[in-house]
Every structure is written in structure tokens, then in C-alpha cells.
Amino acid sequence: MTETVLQLKDVQFDWTKRAEFSLSVPDFAMRKGETVLLLGESGSGKSTLLSLICGTLVPQAGSIKVADADMTTLSASARDRFRAERIGVIFQQFNLLPFGTVADNIQLPLRFAPERRQKAGDVGNATQNLLDALGLSRSVIIAKASTLSVGQQQRVAVARALIGQPSLIIADEPTSALDAATQSAFLDVLFEQVAASGASLLMVSHDARLADRFDRTVTMDDLTKPKVAV
Ligand SMILES: Nc1ncnc2c1ncn2[C@@H]1O[C@H](COP(=O)(O)OP(=O)(O)OP(=O)(O)O)[C@@H](O)[C@H]1O
Fold first, then answer.
1. 4-224 CATH fold
2. For residues 167 and 65, is the Cβ–Cβ distance under 8 A?
3. Where are the alpha helices (DSSP H) in 58-179?
4. How high is the ipTM of this complex?
5. pLDDT tens, 140-184?
6. What predicted TM-score, i.e. pTM, was given to this entire model?
7. Under the GO molecular function aspect, what terms does this record hold (predicted)?
8. HSE toward the beta carbon, residue 149, CA cutoff 13 A
9. Angle between the 180-197 and 123-133 helix axes, to the nearest 10 degrees?
10. Phi/psi at 197 (nearest 5 deg)?
């Protein structure tokens, strides 16, 4: 049987003070190891949807299952712990701690996730293996994040999302600030590492040309279409 990593059912979300925007997702699922590109117009709710999946927002109705847990039934602190254990997040601006070293940044999620820490095994080795796999020199491990080039920061952000093999990697427009060549190199590394770890990848972009790299492309229009009764 195919393992489902993410399952949204009848999700309904409104920003309470913004009646003009509401998000409704009848049914969306991702399989283990699947890579999905999420496209949509600016303001269509892509980031809102990712925040719901990560559990930093909670819907007014519906269920959001990540691996074996329904995020909507967990307390706020249980959601935070669950996110740290099971989800690797890559932000648009990478969000590295500028005064932390590369090692501090890569190992950050493990501080809040004992099971993920255990999965990572020897944390020093896991960090070095990721640096090697991502083509970063080992000497960079003690550098402060603020001294890194943008290309190096991207790779550290990928390593931070992948350490300890979370089931789901969420990436919110991680290539929007990059030129075409850098973008392509970044995606090569990201896909290689996601495949090696067996994770599923949900990536938001404005760029439909990236579709060929993914198993499947969905648009916000598709996702929010009401179910047709049969
Ligand atoms: N913190 C917030 N409080 C209230 N409304 C918000 C908040 N964040 C986003 N919104 C509104 O929710 C709607 C969807 O925004 P969202 O950022 O999810 O769209 P998006 O598809 O990710 O857009 P973009 O591609 O421009 O990043 C917009 O109308 C936006 O103004």
C-alpha cells in the first residue's frame, strides 16, 4: 500500500479580520517520496496553505494529517514539537541565524526534536555528511552564517531541512531571489538530497517552467475547487 505523508480534507481557513480572503481545500494528499510543485497567483494563499500544513496556523474546519498525526487536534506546543520532528522547512530568505555557525544552523531543528536527533545518529557526522553531499567544504562548518555567500546559505538551509530525515520537506519559493544558473544548481542539489533521504517535497513557486522536475504540479485553483459529487 502506498504510504500517505500528507492528507488535507475539507480544510477551511479565514483570516478573521480579512473576510475577503478565505481558503478552502476539499482534498489534497501526497505520497511518501513524492515531489509536488504548487503554483498560484500572488495572493492566492500558497504561503497560508504551507503555514496550515506546518501547523503555525490552524484551520477553522477540516483535518490536516502529516504522517500519522492530525495537526488540527494537537495543542500549540504539541504542534511545535511535531513540526520540529517531522517537517523540514526551507524559507524564501533561508532564515539562518546570522551569528550562529553553519553547524549551529544545520543542527537547530534537532534541539527541539529528540526523535529526529536520534535518527540523525552522531550529529557531528550527520552534519559533515550533509556538507559533503551538498558540496560545501568542511572548513565552512565553524563559519558564522552572516559570512556566507547566498549560494552557501541555500545549501545550509537545505541541510537544516534534511538533517534527521523528516518525512516532509516544505519549501516556500526558495529560488525566487536567484539567477537562472544558481536556481538550477540549487534545485539539482535539493532533488538529489530529497531522493536520498526518501522525503516528500512540497515546493511553492511562481515559475511553471520548473514543473518538469516534479512528479506532479498542482495549482491553487485545482486545490481549492469544490469536490464534484458522483
Ligand atoms: N498575517 C496575515 N493576516 C491577515 N491576512 C493575511 C496575512 N497573511 C496573508 N494574508 C492574506 O491572505 C491572502 C493570501 O496570502 P498568501 O501570502 O498566503 O498568498 P501567496 O499565494 O503566498 O502570495 P505570494 O505569492 O504573493 O507570496 C492575501 O489576501 C493576504 O493579504
1. Rossmann fold (3.40.50)
2. no
3. 76-86, 102-107, 114-120, 123-133, 150-162
4. 0.97
5. 999 999 999 888 898 899 999 999 999 999 999 888 767 777 788
6. 0.92
7. ATP binding; ATP hydrolysis activity; transmembrane transporter activity
8. 6
9. 140
10. -90, -10
